[in-house]
Write a structure and sequence with these properties.
The structure holds 2 protein chains of 2 kinds. By secondary structure, chain A is an alpha+beta fold. Chain A has 6 helices and 5 strands. The longest helix of chain A is centred in the N-terminal third of the chain and has 15 residues. The relative contact order of chain A is 0.17. By secondary structure, chain B is mostly helical. Chain B is built from 12 helices and 2 strands; from the N terminus they run αααββααααααααα. In chain B, strands 1-2 form a two-stranded antiparallel sheet. The longest helix of chain B is centred in the N-terminal third of the chain and has 39 residues. The chains are: A alpha+beta, B mainly alpha. Chains A and B meet through α3 of A and α1 of B.
């Protein structure tokens, strides 16, 4: 036989509410006290465009095509990333390096066009892993919004690291 | 002749002022609700339209005007169009009888801060506040949508049930004050803070408060628009400014319901322990107006506080609370009030009443 205290504490009892419980008022007062305590708490919201959270340095966002220490393009147009890409977001046309641009490339083959469709990309980072030349990396930049689909197909100019210029992300 | 012209001018000025004040408060109640909801949930609420979101009601209104005006095929067009207007007019009419402030004198001319000093003000308000449900009912029925119809039926049965409890609470209040005139009830509560009828009628206050929540269709009694059961309730088919008018009507109803709670149970425009002067100037008028709205807005805050605390009732719980708890409680309250009044009068302490 359960004692009175045990009966009162049984969460599954249904039909023997005490008078105080049947009045509802104490329970409502308790609940209102809880909500009021939240009313005076500082909001936890991060006001997004003005405030941003720090993202990890390993965040997989916008791609960048790196240059080596002499300012030459690392990409040799081998299409390994294109092959590795599970979303078919990368399109590369490779070509032989013209003689007047030799000093900008490491080998005689280079990627003539290099397009990434940012809407198709799933930011998995497999291109990064597939790249034998350590040319492509994903950066923590994540604000892509544009008002047309065409603008979100990034070409080689937009992706390649500028010589001496800023890198795409701040840290 | 000039007397009548002066009377008309003053009355219209008072009426327009009160109307503008109420509409302003209603418009900002929508912003207030969202801000308060935000703070209760540890967030900011709308803060993009102007500083502190101050232009949000205007932005909302503008948005409503630009939305598509949709009338469902085979809906009863006339009733469909008139229903939101009905909600708003019925709710707005309550305003006429509420004493928003004391009188003041300009020279020798007495100006009452009340649109119409009706000697049976309480009856008028009871009638008008229950008229508000016609909007929901008509809108729900005219939409030709089963969910809207369910919402309308729920609204009407809920209002009828809680009307009775509200009426019983008011009967006890009238017994206490021996008058159905709202102005006289407020005057009876002037002076010491314990003259407020919440101290003479605590049970009546609880009944009236709960019934007000139900009449306004506020959470936890917002079953007419229970979205998880009824899509959107009686305004499922409404769009554009017609929907806006429904919302506006509901907030008007709430604003005036909290005003009524302040008037009937919390001394209306009375400042505790301050006796109204014999020949007050305009400063006193504005002060009493401010005090009235301070009390009313506090109760509006309580309404919103309740909304963000208590979950919605189930329909049978709603009916049980109305018919099995509030109505018997109201009857007992009337009996006890009547008996105590007789005893006190025999003892000769009917007091200031």
């Amino acid at each position: 036989m359960p004692t009175d205290v045990q009966k009162k504490n049984d969460p599954f009892r249904k039909y023997d509410l005490t008078l105080m419980e049947r009045l509802y008022i104490p329970a409502i007062a308790k609940g209102m006290a809880v909500t009021l305590s939240h009313f005076f708490k500082k909001p936890v919201t991060i006001q997004y465009p003005e405030q941003k959270t720090d993202v990890s340095h390993r965040w997989r966002g916008r791609h960048v095509l790196k240059r080596d220490e002499f300012g030459r393009e690392r990409c040799v147009g081998c299409k390994m990333c294109e092959l590795a890409c599970p979303a078919d977001a990368i399109t590369i046309q490779s070509a032989e390096v013209p003689p007047e641009r030799r000093h900008m490339h490491t080998t005689e083959r280079y990627s003539e066009t290099y397009e990434i469709d940012m809407l198709r990309c799933i930011y998995c980072g497999l291109c990064e892993e597939a790249c034998p030349e350590a040319a492509i990396f994903l950066t923590p930049f994540y604000e892509f919004a544009e008002n047309s689909r065409e603008k979100l197909v990034y070409n080689k100019d937009m992706l390649t690291e500028k010589v001496g210029g800023p890198i795409f992300y701040k840290d | 002749m000039t007397d009548i012209v002066l009377f008309l001018i003053v009355k219209s000025a008072v009426a327009v002022t009160m109307f503008v004040i109420v509409l302003g408060i209603v418009a900002y109640a929508t912003l207030g609700e969202r801000k308060i909801a935000g703070y209760f949930q540890d967030r900011h609420g709308p803060n993009r339209a102007g500083p502190w979101g101050i232009l949000q009601p205007i932005a909302d209104g503008t948005k409503f005007f630009f939305k598509e005006e949709f009338i469902p095929d085979r809906a009863n067009k006339w009733l469909f169009v008139i229903a939101p207007t009905f909600t708003f007019i019925a709710a707005g009419s309550i305003m006429a009888a509420i004493p928003f402030g004391d009188r003041f004198f300009v020279g020798d001319y007495e100006v009452k801060l009340q649109i119409a000093d009706i000697n049976i003000g309480i009856l008028y308000i009871l009638a008008m506040s229950s008229m508000g449900v016609y909007g929901a009912m008509l809108g729900g029925w005219a939409s030709n949508n089963k969910y809207s119809l369910m919402g309308g039926i729920r609204a009407s049965s809920q209002t009828i049930s809680y009307e009775i409890a509200m009426g019983l609470a008011i009967v006890a209040l009238i017994l206490d004050h021996a008058t159905p005139s709202l102005r006289q009830i407020v005057l009876n509560q002037s002076g010491a803070i314990w003259h407020w009828s919440v101290f003479t009628q605590p049970i009546g206050f609880i009944i009236f408060f709960v019934a007000s929540l139900a009449e306004c269709g506020r959470v936890p009694f917002d079953l007419p628009e229970a979205e998880n059961e009824l899509v959107g309730g009686y305004h499922t088919e409404y769009s554009s400014m017609k929907f806006g008018l429904f919302q506006f009507g509901e907030y008007t109803h709430m604003t005036l319901a909290v005003g009524l709670i302040a008037t009937l149970y919390f001394g209306g425009w009375n400042i505790p322990f301050v006796v109204p002067p014999e020949h007050p100037g305009i400063i006193w008028g504005l002060l009493t107006l401010g005090v009235f709205w301070a009390k009313a807005l506090f109760f509006m805050f309580v309404f919103m506080w309740i909304r963000w605390t208590i979950p919605r009732f189930r329909y049978d719980q709603l009916m049980n609370l109305g018919w099995k708890s509030l109505i018997p409680l109201g009857i007992v309250n009337i009996l006890v009030t009547a008996i105590l009044l007789v005893i006190f009068q025999d003892l000769g302490w009917a007091g200031g009443r």
